[in-house]
Amino acid sequence: MQAMRDRSLVAVSSLREFFRDAFHEATEHQHLDIEEQSEQYVVNLLTMFSRADALYEKTPEGLRIRPLAHMLAESLEAPSAQARQRGLAAARRCVAVHRRLLREELRAQIDRHRLHIAMGGNAYSSLADSMQRSASGRGIAATYAELASKFQGLVDALNEVSEMSYVHTDADILRLYEI
After folding, report:
1. Which sign, positive or negative, has the C-alpha torsion 8, 159, 15, 57?
2. How far from chain centre, in Å, is Cα 111?
3. In the chain, where are the structural domains located?
4. What is the value of pTM for the model shown?
């Protein structure tokens, strides 16, 4: 990870290993103690969403990111527990991605940042509660509960991973003056 901080090119043979190392370093730096299963879950999430097509849905107007609030509302109103779990799972996966995509804007609008944190934590919490009710979901329910309770720390660690690989430009410096 030192090469990332030095802003030199980092060759990786496995994107999953790259995210695992970067996320592990970030959680240690953030003093965030999480279970191995939770760490593996986040690494898998990062790997999956490294593909842009995983973020968008097809609409008559073209590809777009679905509003997170709509995803949560539809998930909570789903007719079955399975549909609710699928919807909440999609919503919680998108929270981290939305957070990254809106990072610059959210820095200037703290209330929206807090809303995304609350929505992400609540999505994981709802999913954990829902999964706890089924025998097949109890194993992953503990992971979701941990992610819900530590969501702010996870977002901080993900931001650190993002910052590790982001090359700042003069435009970023100017943007700081706008804030």
Report:
1. negative
2. 18
3. 2-178
4. 0.61
Q: Which helix (H) or strand (E) covers residue 62, if one does?
A: strand 62-64
Tens digit of each residue's pLDDT (9 = 90 or more) over 41-81: 889 888 877 766 555 677 888 877 666 666 677 777 788 88
Site of tokens 């992953």: 140
Q: Which of 99, 123, 110, 106 is nearest to 46 (CA)?
A: 99
Q: Which two structure tokens, joined as six digits, stand for 163?
A: 């910052």
Contacts 24+ apart (CB under 8 A), 9-12: none
The tokens describing 136, both together, are 């097949």
CA–CA dist 46, 97 (Å, integer): 9
The H or E element that residue 112 is part of is helix 110-132
- In angstroms, rounded to a whole number, what is the distance separating the alpha carbons of residues 59 and 176? 35
Evaluated on CA atoms 4, 164, 46, 173, the torsion sign reads negative
- The 3-state DSSP class for residue 64 equals strand
